[in-house]
Amino acid sequence: MKYALICSLLVSLLFGTGLPVASAQADVTHHFGFKKSVGGQLPSINEEGFKDIIDKNGAIFLADPSRKELFLTFDNGYENGYTAPILDTLKAKKVPAIFFVTGHYIKDQPELLKRMAAEGHLIGNHSWSHPDMTTISDAQIREELEKVKSATAQVTGQSKMEYLRPPRGIFSDRTLRVTRTLGYTNVFWSVAYKDWDVNDQHGADYAYQKVVSQLHPGAVILLHSVSKDNAAALGAIIDEARRQGYEFKSLDEMKPEQARP
C-alpha cells in the first residue's frame, strides 16, 4: 500500500503539472565550459554533459581541427574605452572579427558599431538585456534578439545578423532550438580565460600567455573588449599566431561541416 502511494506521488510529480518529461529535459540549464587545450592538443566538451545538445542544434564550439584557422570573437556588453584600440589593431593587422553586442552597447556606442560594420567585421547578437535565456519564454527570447537585430540595422544599415552568443554562456536544449529556428547559429568558444573582470587585470603579457598557450587548429577565441590586457596584447597575439602558421578567418568563412565540436 505504502509502495503504491509513493509511486502515485512520483507519477504525479512527473506528469501532474501537464509538462511532458521531454519538455522538462529540454529546459535543463547548462553553463558552457570545456577542457582547455594544452600544448596544441584539441579542447574537449566530451565530459561536460551537453555535447549532444550542441551537436544536434548546430552550435559552434570548434571549427575544422585539421585546418590551422582561428576565429576571433569579442563580447561587447558595455564600453570600457578599449574597443577603438582593438579595432585599430584589427585594421592594421587585416584581421576579421565578430563583435557580439547588447542593447546597452548599441544605444551607448552607435559610432563604434558603425565602425565595426564599415571595417568589415561581423556584428553578432548578445541579446538586448543580457538575461539568462533559460529563464524566459520563447516569445521573450524572440523579442530580445529581434530588438538587437533591428536596432543594429537602424544604426549600421546592415540587416543581416546570423550569429548569437548566449549571455553568460547559459543555455538549454530549448534555447538552442528556439534561436536556431529564428535563423541564428549559437557561437560558443574553445579558447578563453578570465578576462572580463576589469578589477582583476594583470597586464599585456598575462593576456598574451593565456591566449597563446591555448591556440589550436579551428579555435574559436573568446575575448571581452572591456579588458585592458586584451587591447594591449592583441597585436602580439595575432603576430605569434601567424608565426605559428595560423590564419584568421571570419565566421562567415567557416563551412557548415567545419563547425564541429
From TrEMBL:
Looking at the record's lineage, which domain of life comes first?
Answer: Bacteria
Q: Please give the name of this protein.
A: Delta-lactam-biosynthetic de-N-acetylase
Instruction: Name the NCBIfam families for this protein.
Output: spore_pdaA (TIGR02884)
Q: Which gene underlies this protein? A: pdaA
Q: What is the lineage of its organism?
A: Bacteria, Bacillati, Bacillota, Bacilli, Bacillales
Q: Cite the NodB homology domain residue spans from the record.
A: 68-249
- InterPro entries per record: Glyco_hydro/deAcase_b/a-brl, NODB_dom, Polysacc_deacetylase_ArnD, Spore_PdaA
Task: List UniProt keywords, sorted A-Z.
Answer: Signal
Signal peptide from the UniProt entry: 1-26
What species does this protein belong to? Paenibacillus rhizolycopersici
